[in-house]
Amino acid sequence: MRRSLVATAAVAALALAGCTTGGNSGTSSTPTSGAANPQAVAYMDKVCGAASEFAKIEKTAPKLDAGDSTKLKAEMAAYMGQLADAFAKSAEGLKNVGPSPVAGGEAAVTRMAETFTSLSAVFADAKVKVEQADANNATGGLQAAGEAIAKLSELADPLRDLKDVPELQKATQTAQKCQEMQRLNVTPTS
């Protein structure tokens, strides 16, 4: 039982290492016709730049080594800390993008920042639980790591909060940083 829980947590962590996401919540569709507002595009460049910071931070997923649970525990704790820091950095960046040129934009970006802040707290808590857990008992902290990783479904599309702001949603189609996010496989592609 211990080995299977350790392996499950490690496999989940390894799957996350690529920062891949799935699904399509519709943020990639073009909500209106015509060219995007240049001010909205510039704003979304800032938003996507801040949101994608979590994908750029070095994260070293634990190596699957069922024979050394102490090492796996230490690596999993470090990984949880790296994720907590990465999401906190994105949340801070989102809080500092400035005023939106489009009505509703600031509220949407605030919700995005709150999601990143929440995920940062989840991973920080998981890190503490992993550090406090008995390395020979995977049901403690390592299970908490697996549960934290499962919370990443909240970030399947970090731009989902823009669904109520069609002008900004449209701007994501031409904003350079938003296109980079798609290349990083952080947001769904159309």
Describe what this molecule looks like in 3D.
- The chain has helices spanning 2-16, 38-51, 53-56, 69-95, 105-132, 141-150, 166-171, 176-183.
- It is mainly α.
- The longest helix has 28 residues, at 105-132.
- Residues 1-32 have low confidence and may be disordered.
- Shape field: elongated
List low-confidence stretches.
1-32
The helix/strand order is HHHHHHHH
- Binned strand content: under 5%
Helix content: 55-70%
The chain-level structural class is mainly alpha
Describe the biggest sheet?
none
Calculate the terminal CA-CA distance, rounded to whole Å.
41 Å
> What is the alpha-carbon Rg in Å?
18 Å
Mean pLDDT: 76
Helices and strands in order:
Layout (H helix, E strand, L loop, with lengths): L1 H15 L21 H14 L1 H4 L12 H27 L9 H28 L8 H10 L15 H6 L4 H8 L7
Helix pairs in contact: 1-6, 2-4, 2-8, 4-5, 4-6, 5-6
